[in-house]
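call fold(seq) -> tokens
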Amino acid sequence: MPRPSKYIPPTTIGGRLRAAREDLHLSLADVAHGQYSTSLISQIERNRIEPSQESLRFLAERLQLSLPELQQLARQSREQDQQNHPTQSYEELRRSATELLERAEISSALHLLATLSFPQIPPDQRWRLAALRGHCYFGQRKFLQAQQDFIYALHEQSTSQTHLSSLQPERMLLHLHLAATYRELRQSEAALEQYYLTLSLISRETPFDYVAEAHWGLALLHLEQAHRLSRTAEEEIKEALHHALKHAENACFLYRSISELRRAAAVTCLIAQIEQELGSIDHVKKLLTELLAHWSPLLVEPAVSSDSSVLEKNQHQEIASIVSSAACSLADIELQAKNYAQALLYVEQALAAAQQSYKLRRAEAYVMLGRVFESINAETDESALARICPSQIEQAFSQAVEELSTTHRIAARISIHVRFGRYLLKIGKIEDGEQQLELARQLSDLVSASNHSSTLLEDVTLL
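ret:
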């Protein structure tokens, strides 16, 4: 005999929703309508989860209820809950969101945290919940929102009465991901400071993957530093590249030591890129060819299905990212050697893998395709490949722009706009080229504005 449902007062948001559903003789699945999980609807009905404004609008429409009425009940429920057991409820919320995040169910975790009003949360929970929401945004690659939450969390952490030594891993992850948002938003000095701060917090309890991720980030920053230096500053470039290589090798060693082989392979792609710039071409080709030989067959195995878990899908994307990145790097080596036919074969492989990976990988592959096409057309050797239609080159760069247009990959977007703009200027499309360069300037201004506003952040901006 099924256990009777726990009584939920109809004067609460959950009770009102359940009563309306039962009056309409609808099941949880009927209400969810494929838009939300039945588990989420059930938890909202039991007042276990506070619904977001988006889900409230959805439920008001599905259950033929007044949205203002539901919003008022939600506010009353939140205020009553805070009065009855403020610390306990927020601790349960933090644990639930953490568990979802660890299972890579980022949207569900963020759903629990999106409507939080931080000033109303007890101080010792405030910074932890702000950081946790930042990690959710970070997982969605929404770096501007993540950075805002992380900075707020750091500020609140400094006023917390909790013994921070017992929360060392949480503190490290906060600094680590804040560093990554700074790097993604082209704020290199701030990123360096946060990465080194992360490493200064290392203790016996520190997870190895946190340390590895810090070294990975530092490798990327030193590589970017080398790219920004004038080509005449050969010694400074070489020094920056050697710093990058040292950190990348540390990250790779640490990932292998904890059997994080996909991460180790991804860092190996970075090591290959650094060594290529140091001139070790033959070694790099061998390294990348071995990577492709190992990981490419895993992509032709049965693809992940709709029944696959989020973690399985993420793992498949990581493998596709490794293959795409390695193929792109090999294409670049062949491009430098003017082996255009071979370069195009690697680009084709990179594009195929990138379709199963991340937007950033697809954008990189399209940029590489545009670069190869551009070099073929610049070739004066009659034995070279047939010239490429200029519209194909534009299309490749345009597709790269489109892939990242809705993302917070600011640094990558700026780079692509600049490359595309310079190409358009070179072929005489002055207006179109200037437009691309202007888009790059606007993104750069956006980052500058974000950096300035971060230092002036007030509680009201995070309500």
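The CA atoms of residues 3 and 46 lie 15 Å apart.
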